[in-house]
Amino acid sequence: MARSLSPDVAKREVWAWAMYDFANSGYTTVVITAIFNAYFVGVVAGNATWATLAWTASLALSYALIMVTAPVVGAYADLHAAKKKLLLLSTIGCVIFTAALALAGPGTLWLAVPLVVLSNFFYGSGENLIAAFLPELARGRALGRVSGWGWSLGYLGGLASLGACLAYIDWAQARGLGAAEFVPGTMLITAGLFLIASLPTFLFLKERAVPQAHAQGNLIRASFARLGETLRYAGRYRDLRRFLVCTVFYQAGIQAVVSLAAIYAQQAMRFSTRDTILMVFVVNITAAAGAFFFGHLQDRIGHIPTIALTLVLWILMVLLAWAAQGPPMFWVAANLAGIAMGASQSAGRALVGLLSPAKRRAEFFGLWGLAVKLSAILGPITYGLASWLSRGDHRLAILITGSYFVAGLVLLGGVDVLRGRRAALRGGII
Which secondary-structure segment (H or E) carries 421? Predict the structure, then answer.
């Protein structure tokens, strides 16, 4: 393990960094993927024909806010060596608004929508910031491996939160309580576990960056000026730029699957709430295994072949989910998604670190976050519109959304990692 880390990095610090993936995965697993999304559609919005579109529109708004702020936050973090401080603020925000989701119930769309927007905004902002620590912790040749450790532990964190929620739901249902009574409790459980599990990150992870010289004056203006420089600099890194465009497409498909999995399971496959949670629980196990295995594989066969392999798995998953007429084939599709999810997320984060210039990594990870959040608007909204226009045909919606994986695979073919790495080391296209 020590050979994978930068010279001044201790194992405990890498564990503390990876623990943030463990902590925040409870939010995306419980709120976005397994429980609250289906609750939003079926209970809060009363299963209206527009309910899925309302859910995806709420997510789209939160991601739009992140798109506006992420590059500026990255620029500010680099200028002031403030990644850790900003990460703390984003964590507190996500914990508070996740707990507040417990107040959402039948007919409270006016409350649920802003709480979803705010909780997801803070979650996404923290996701960008924790990723920017990766290149400081791992050696260049081990970025994929260390990133995979984080994603693997993250899926275990999702399992922990989901398992706790499942135990609570079983307890509640045994006492005759319905979703309107037990789902609020799962929001409190998720928020509490996020807060507790993130503590090692803030206790042991170091801020190695040093404040950079910048013009005196308004700090926001300075950050915007830095952002302008980042956008101009991005033109020098054609392989990173192409990969970011590729990311928009294939992540659009991933984000649609993540945010609509429970909805598809319940609406198209007629899963119960408990069946859906159990499926997501098992998928998190395969996702953890996929992130760990592919994290090592990508350092052996290369980042591009690894991502290409995962995109092929995603395409196969979409076809199986579309064709499934019952639980058995859908379970196969779901576990394929798990394997591909951990791998494609981990490999993408590592490749951005590899292709980014050292002094601007937080900014370039901000641009990566911008690309991911743009995809998180495109994918779910495409699904939501397709289901609405087709009067609830979720099979057609997932098939249309799957085209994003095909587009990503085509774009990936034009990324040259060696050329991109040399450009990052030398400061531009060579």
Answer: helix 417-426
Q: Give per-residue pLDDT as tens, 27-43.
A: 999 999 999 999 999 99
Sequence-distant contacts of 48-55: CB under 8 A, at least 24 apart: 49/388, 49/391, 49/392, 50/388, 52/260, 52/263, 52/267, 52/383, 52/384, 52/387, 52/388, 53/384, 53/385, 53/387, 53/388, 54/109, 54/113, 54/384, 55/116, 55/259, 55/260, 55/263, 55/380, 55/384
Per the structure, how many domains does the chain have?
1
- Cβ distance 212 to 79 under 8 Å? yes
Residue 20 lies in a domain: yes
Q: How far apart are CA 178 and CA 174, in angstroms?
A: 10
Tell me the average pLDDT across 217-230: 68
The answer to whether position 332 is within a domain reads: yes
User: Has residue 120 been placed in a domain?
Assistant: yes
CATH of the domain at 386: 1.20.1250.20
Query: How far lies 127's CA from each of 78, 255, 337, in Å?
Result: 16, 14, 21
**Model pLDDT for residues 232-253, shown as the tens digit of each residue:** 777 788 888 899 999 999 999 9
More confident residue, 325 or 98: 98
Is it the case that residue 113 has pLDDT exceeding 90?
yes
> Between 219 and 124, where is the model more confident?
124
| CA–CA dist 357, 428 (Å, integer) | 9
Which DSSP symbol is given to 31?
I
pLDDT (average), residues 71-98: 90
DSSP-assigned letters across all residues of 361-410: HHHHHHHHHHHHHHHHHHHHHHHHHHHHHTTS-HHHHHHHHTHHHHHHHH
429, 237 contact by CB (below 8 A): yes
Domain that holds residue 145: 10-203+219-426
Residue 42: DSSP 8-state: I
340 lies in a domain? yes
Q: What is the pLDDT of residue 347?
A: 76
pTM: 0.83
To the nearest whole number, what is the mean pLDDT of the chain? 86
